[in-house]
Every structure is written in structure tokens, then in C-alpha cells.
Amino acid sequence: MITEMISGVWICNHEDIFNQDFLKDKLISVIINCTKDKAFPNVDVRKVRVPVSDMCGSQDIQYLQDNMNVITKFIHSNIEENNIIIFGYDNYTVPSIIVGAYLKNIGELPNHVIKDVMISKNKNIRLDLDISIF
Asked: What is the rounded average pLDDT of the residues 25-53?
């Protein structure tokens, strides 16, 4: 399921990312791939890989902690002029964590509000990690 989490920022899984009609219709110009081994769709857009696994183990969490400021600043610097889609093995883990960290770090939302905001966009979202660690 593709979900718009913030105006101009969508999340989805590694299967939904190949919906060419959606990518064209929404004028997606940046794709952030949060997988180690899944392909990007064959479209002419800016492509960025955040290499984490589907289980979000301790090494992945450390990688996200070390790089979250760069990731959220990249999104922020592109959000005005580009539509962005973030995909992972599923859209309920790493893409959700990144959007949650964006809301915390850039949007300055309090931690206790972030999960409610995200669930209002998609009731299947789960933030099993404490966003404050990012």
C-alpha cells in the first residue's frame, strides 16, 4: 500500500514501487530505497540507497542512527521541489522510521505525537522503535 505521509512524501514496499502509473501520476523525482538488495524501478529519477535489512537489527539501527541526520536533511532539501517516495521491504518499518525521524528532527513534533500522526495516515503503521534515538 502506497501512503502519502507528508505532503509530497510517500512510503511503500519493494513491490509497490514498480507501479509506473503512480510514479508518473505523482511526478516522483526522488526514490529512496531502504533495502540492501531490492532493485530500483527503471525510471529516470534521482535514486538513493539506504542499505538496511528487513529485520532492522542492531547493525541497521546503528547505521540509521549514524546517518539519520543526513537522510532527513536530504529529504528536507529536496521536499520543496521534488516528490519523494521511500520504500523498503515493507512500508511499515524503515520507511516509517525515516518519516518519523523527519517529523521529529525537521518538523519538531514531540515524540508522543509522531506515532498518532503517522497512524492517522495509515492505520497499519507501527513504530516499534523509539524515534527519540534518532
From this structure: 97
- Tell me the three state secondary structure of residue 112: helix
Tell me how far CA of residue 91 lies from CA of 73, 85, 95, 119, in angstroms: 21, 11, 6, 12
Q: Which of 121, 125, 100, 119 is nearest to 111 (CA)?
A: 100
Q: What pLDDT is recorded for position 39?
A: 97
What letter would DSSP give residue 54?
S
Cα(61)–Cα(76) distance, integer angstroms: 21
Cell 509497490, residue?
Answer: 16
Residues spanned by the domain of 85: 3-133
The reply to whether the predicted model has a pTM over 0.90 is yes
pLDDT tens for residues 76-121?
999 999 999 999 998 778 999 999 999 999 988 888 899 899 999 9
Between β-strands 28-34 and 83-88, what pairing exists: parallel, antiparallel or unpaired?
parallel
Count of domains forming the chain = 1
Backbone torsions φ then ψ of 49, nearest 5 degrees: -110, 135
